Amino acid sequence: MITALPLAGLALAVAMQSPLAALLMGIGLTVGRGSCPSYATRWGSRALQGAIVLLGFSLNGQDVLALGPTTLYLTSATVCAVLATGLLSWTLLKPPRIQAALLSAGTAICGGTTIATLAPVLKAKPADTATCLALVFLLNAVAVLIYPLIGAQLALSDEQFALWAALSIHDTASVLAAAASFSPEALETATVVKLGRTLWLIPLTLAASALTKRRGAIPFPPFIVLFLGAVLLRTLVPLGPLFLETTALTSKTLLLCALFLIGMQINRGALKTLSPRLWAQGILLWLLASVGVLAALLVLPGLGGA
User: Fold this and answer.
1) Is the CB of residue 193 less than 8 Å from the CB of residue 67?
2) What is the pTM assigned to this prediction?
3) Structural domain for 101, as ranges
4) Using CA atoms, how far apart are residues 124 and 105, in angstroms rounded to an integer?
5) How many domains in the chain?
6) Which backbone phi and psi does 124 adopt, to 5 degrees?
7) Which tens digit of pLDDT belongs to each residue from 21-43?
């Protein structure tokens, strides 16, 4: 039975519209109580999967194809380079394997959304998911603050800044926040480029599902199939703005609920297992992505209007 305190905390987390706050409030509630209620695991998983399915309606493949080959190549190169660096850094730093996989994929594609999508596929523990999410959210906050300042100092064009933000900041909301702080033109371009990066979630999730399936099990979890169906429907069928706004709002609300419930599954023992090696890997990957994309935009002719 859900008591008044968790309900109040959940309502506050949704009202604040902050993924990091939702996660930390859930953790704080369980650490204070000393135990995790049984419903947190069941409903946390359902809310997370529902959020992922509805996310598919925001991904339109036609918009991505309109970006042009240069931007698509740069996006693909960035995603592949971060994934490859994540594998290399895992062999050197030796953080926990599942956490390292989640963090590498999240840095390469779409931060918390990628981590949340892959967590049930990789059968990650709540502590694995929460640790990676917390690190990503903190790095997002840093990026939103410093990217516009650096962009102004380097006199980046609107398109250069949009590409830099969209390809190296983890989550979509943080990309848009940073781009909006720079210029309206940067915001418009960053929105579409970030969408192209997010679509990499599809092949990566399919590959992870195929590689981790058990003998006799279905190749892909049902929620992944529904997610792909939503992406296909969004790409092929003109859906009304009211429908798209409703599904986007519902997806974000479900994700906030899921993060709160994931946080509630973290106890004092799980907090003691946090790996400094994982934090080192996460910061390293983000710095490499940020510096690498920025260097490419400044040095290579034709990228971002340079």
Assistant:
1) yes
2) 0.76
3) 4-305
4) 14
5) 1
6) -70, 145
7) 787 787 777 766 656 666 776 77
